[in-house]
Amino acid sequence: MYIKRFFGYFFALCCLAGCSTVDIISGDKWDTEYDITTAGAPIQLQYGQLSDGYGTDDTQHNIAVLLPLSGDAAPIGRTIRTSVETALVQRPNKNLAVTFYDTTTDLSETINTVLETKPEIIIGPIFANDAKIVRAAKPSEIPVLSFTSDATAIGDGVMTMALMPTNGVESIIAQMQSDNIKHFIVIAPDTASGHLMAGAAKSANELYTPTLNGIFFYKEKDTDSIKNTAETASMNQARIAAHTRARTVLSDIITNERLTTTERANLSTQLEKLEKTETLGTLPYDAILFLGDGEDTKSLASFLRYYDVGARDIKFYGTTMWDGSDIASDFTMSGARFPSLTNSSPEFSVIYEQISGKTPNHLAAFGYDAINMAIGMIYSDKTNATYLITPNGYIGTSGLYRLTPNGSSERALQISELNGTNTPTVIKKSVTDFTTPIYKINASDVKITDSMDLETPGIDPDDYIFLPEHLRDKYSSKIIGANARETKNIKRSQIVAFLPDEDSEPIKSENYKPIKHESISRTYIDEYQIEE
Q1: Which CATH homologous superfamily contains domain 166-234+283-340?
Q2: Domain map of the chain by residue range?
Q3: Which one of 159, 282, 321, 357 has the minimum C-beta count within 10 Å?
Q4: What are the angstrom distances between the C-alpha of 280 and each of 4, 43, 127, 212, 245?
Q5: pLDDT tens per residue across span 257-296
Q6: What does the pLDDT look like over 457-468, one tens digit per residue?
Q7: Helix or strand (DSSP H, E) at 320
Q8: Dihedral (C-alpha) 79, 80, 84, 86: value to the nearest 10 degrees?
């Protein structure tokens, strides 16, 4: 029953916790807060630097590793198992026993077997439900380095090595602030993780200068849902209606009014320019934050371009879910920015590839860091909690990170920009220490959020055409598509009127012909490797 089983579910939700009280962790009180203002140089997490006394005593030490080594998630488990074995190959120790257990079967029974061996630390499991079972069954003093990022599954000594998606959300919104973005919208998958990450964006809205103007959800890999979401987010109907209204006004004036030669020529020129476009009006945002994977994002961006919203006008941003996806080679997404982890250290990558024949991914790196931390804790002269949860953090194979008293992790991220090649350009390197806190969002502040209608003062067609002074009142238009609440970015006083239903009746004019939109069909490839 103890087949080897390992790894972590890369995304879900929770957020990091930035504690600021002054109690230093003592004993194994895992939920005791620490003073982040004392953060100094991080610990370099490599063998030979963990403890001078590594492997010199005669005490038998025991580490249990809980991973899925059978069933659908077995490939993930084998990935992490290889990273653990890589670490053990680098520096074997006869007094250290590392035993792998399969979590695919009855985990409650398996954890009882594990506890009988009296492990000093447990690595794994991956999934939230499994982590909850382990948390409930284990004695409080046994630490657990899991791989779930579900906030409800960690705590009480159960920590996570996984990257918290909210780290990525906050990192990229902080970058938006640096890019002088004023207003942005969120387009997210209609999943538990998507709603939580949207909640993180909503929390960041209160901490950073860019203002959130709308939240839209779509069904993953669903062409119709993606298309409809892009159409709504682009204000396509309102912009078409504004365009129609402007063309109608110009056409009616040219047809029905007595004009000077100059006036007629001016209005005709405006009408000719409008006939080359399909929409009118600017959008109430200058950036879009995509919270889905690379494939869905490419599809959304394609539909948005179809609805006349391009990367030249609106800045595109993403999350760590873009890292490693084929969106990197899409030249139409050039200029889009997203957060990512640094590449794994060359030393680890070389040995891992020699053992497995494969290039390690970030999840493999998390497993490697976990076993290094576990061994470092065992041979440290500090208490388990003091060693594992240090404000200084660690430099692991994927850069700087630290574990927090509530069990979540904080990982430093770099900001990359797509350039049409498979190698995005790093425009901002990740920080190298925690002397200045990286994140402001607290996990308890992040709530699941629903969609948020686009906040906009609407489009006034009169703003985009120039009429003779004596005709302006006669041909004045009404604001189209206005929608706003009392928020810091749009005041209700900005709304003048809504376009009545009768204003959208078919236009009858000799100079106007409606443009027919062709239907669009897209094919999608599901690239998810794991789902919980």
Answers
A1: Response regulator (3.40.50.2300)
A2: 36-163+346-410, 166-234+283-340, 236-281+455-504
A3: 357
A4: 60, 56, 48, 23, 10
A5: 999 999 999 999 999 999 999 999 999 999 999 999 999 9
A6: 999 999 999 999
A7: none
A8: 30
Q: Which residues contact 492 (CB under 8 A, 6 or more apart)?
A: 484, 485, 486
Return d(Cα 505, Cα 526) in angstroms, integer.
42
Query: 517 CB contacts (<8 Å, ≥6 apart)?
Result: none
Contacts of 132 (CB under 8 A, 6+ apart): 152, 153
| CB-based contact 386:25 (threshold 8 Å) | yes
Measure the CA–CA gap between 266 and 87, rounded to whole angstroms: 75
β-sheet bridge partners, residue 64: 99, 122
Query: In angstroms, what CA-CA distances link 438 with 36, 178, 179, 330, 530?
Result: 11, 15, 18, 30, 29
Judge if 36-163+346-410 and 166-234+283-340 fold alike in CATH terms: yes
Segment 420-445 shows an average pLDDT of 90
**Interatomic CA distance for residues 491 and 9, integer angstroms:** 42
Average pLDDT score over residue span 336-348:
91
Q: What ranges in 179-260 are assigned the alpha helix state H?
A: 192-205, 223-233, 236-256
Domain 36-163+346-410 falls under CATH 2.60.40.1220: no
Mean of pLDDT over the chain = 84
How far apart, in Å, are the Cα atoms of 329 and each of 1, 45, 340, 385?
44, 33, 16, 43
CA distances in angstroms from 4 to 112, 123, 175, 403, listed in the order given:
16, 12, 41, 25
Amino acid at residue number 295: E
Q: How far apart are CA 254 and CA 269, in angstroms?
A: 11
Of the pLDDT bands very low, low, confident and very high (cuts 50, 70, 90), residue 22 is very low
Please count the other Cβ atoms lying within 10 Å of the Cβ belonging to residue 237: 15
Residue corresponding to tokens 């909850």: 132
Lowest-pLDDT range of 111-125, 225-239, 516-530:
516-530
The pLDDT of residue 396 is 92
Q: Which residue has the tokens 């489009």?
A: 459
CB 140 within 8 A of CB 163: no
Whether the bond into 405 is cis, omega within 30 of 0: no
Distances (CA, A) of 129 to 125, 154, 213: 9, 10, 35
Question: By the 8 A CB rule, do 206 and 177 touch?
Answer: no
